Amino acid sequence: MEKGKLNWVFCDGDLPPKDDGLMDAHEALMVLNLSDEEAVINAQVLFEDKDPVEDVILKVQSKRVKCFRLDKPLGECNYQIPFGQYALVLCSNVPVFAVFGRLDTRQTNMAYYTVQGHNF
């Protein structure tokens, strides 16, 4: 049985701005690595109106899950994704599972949901 995929795409990033709510609006990327070696993931951040940011390196230890808060500095380069729309492309050295989540507090009926990415 295959345990994950090497490449993942999340097209609907929309990092909500900070507000005065009880909980911080944010997005997160959860990566599960079931392999026997560390996952080294090269992330690209793509935008509608500017050049992509490449080589944002994320690491997940063997047989671990890691949550990357996307409203915080990301990867070894501490890249800060700006508020607004973007997409993520992940390319890993070992197969992983990836899920994207968003907590949106811009309205009183806040919502948290997860999205399975497309893999190839």
Give a brief outline of the structure.
By secondary structure, this protein is mostly beta strands. It has strands at 5-15, 26-33, 39-46, 53-60, 64-69, 84-104, 111-116, 118-119.
Contiguous uncertain segments of 5+ residues? none
Strand content: over 45%
Molecular shape: globular
Number of helices: 0
Radius of gyration: 14 Å
Helix content bin: under 10%
* Number of strand segments: 8
What string, H for helix and E for strand, traces the elements in order?
EEEEEEEE
Describe the sheet with the most strands.
8 strands, antiparallel
Summed over residues and divided by their number, the pLDDT gives a mean of: 88
| Secondary structural class | mainly beta
Distance between the termini: 16 Å
General description of the model:
By secondary structure, the protein is mostly beta strands. The protein is built from no helices and eight strands. The model has no long low-confidence stretch (mean pLDDT 88).
Q: What is the secondary structure topology, with strand pairs?
A:
Layout: E1 5-15, E2 26-33, E3 39-46, E4 53-60, E5 64-69, E6 84-104, E7 111-116, E8 118-119
Antiparallel strand pairs: 1-6, 1-8, 2-5, 2-6, 3-4, 3-6, 6-7
Which key terms come to mind for this protein?
8 strands, 120 residues, mainly beta, 8-stranded antiparallel beta sheet, 58% strand
